[in-house]
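Q: For a teaching session next week I want to show students how multiple molecules come together into a single three-dimensional assembly. I've collected the sequence lines for a complex. Could you give me the predicted structure tokens for the whole thing so I can convert them for display?
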Amino acid sequence: MFSTAHDERNSSEFRLKKSLGQNFLKSQTVVQRIVDLIDDKSIECVEIGPGSGIMTQLLLNEGHRVHAFEIDRRLEEPLKERFKDEPDFHLYMGDYLKTTVPVELSQRALAVVSNLPYNNGTAIIKKVLRDFLAIRLCVFMLQKEVALRMMSDPGNKTYGSLSVFMQYHFNIESIFTIGPKHFNPSPKVDSTVIRLIPKKEKPLGENPEEFFEFVRQGFKMRRKKLRNNYDFDIMTYASKIGLENTVRAEEISLEQWIRLFQEVKRDG
Ligand code: SAM
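A: Of course. Below is the structure for the complete assembly, covering every listed component.
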């Protein structure tokens, strides 16, 4: 039924769109492994980008209620048809990044699951965090390189503001990695499934945008020393928490970033 945009053989076939990150999973076994990571079978699920519904189907089979957000209008009828006898299936059509989530859904205890579109996976995760206030866990499949950046430690080349952002919010576990052959069409890169458990202690509150902007500024030119990335004397504060004058952003741990930010704020 599904073909790539370059496959012109059958014009009635559904053409998968690269611009929407439509690399659909082919393997039921892989999808089952993802779904099995949600151990609480009574928890409601939000799925971003159900596509043809391969994961949705297995979530429903496990007994989850599913709230699915899909951008591609061409998928509306096939999804409605496929799940017409499933009272636990709820479809929200439109660009999730522009969708206002119903208030009562935003407050429920949920699992968020997605084989994320490659092009805007990080933006989707950031919005998920703003939209859903009682997330119990997230299971995401995403580009291996992006997963590595999210989990990276200080001193590592891949450690950056995304690592600080993600590790502020979650305990992150890498579960498994698969190659391109499991998707239609095959992407050029490997994909990793990660499980995220929200941290209970968030010292700067739920969504400290100012803190994340402060960290991004510190990484602006990562080769440069921290002191060269701010337009004020950051080292006055950095020295208070024991950071060397020559320190670079990539050497600073999440805990140190938090303390540094608190020092700067304390001073107004
Ligand atoms: N869940 C399916 C699977 O695993 O085979 C499809 C995954 S595919 C990688 C990404 C899906 O997200 C596609 O169905 C695509 O249309 C959808 N999508 C892309 N951008 C989106 C957005 N901004 N809002 C909602 N859905 C989006």
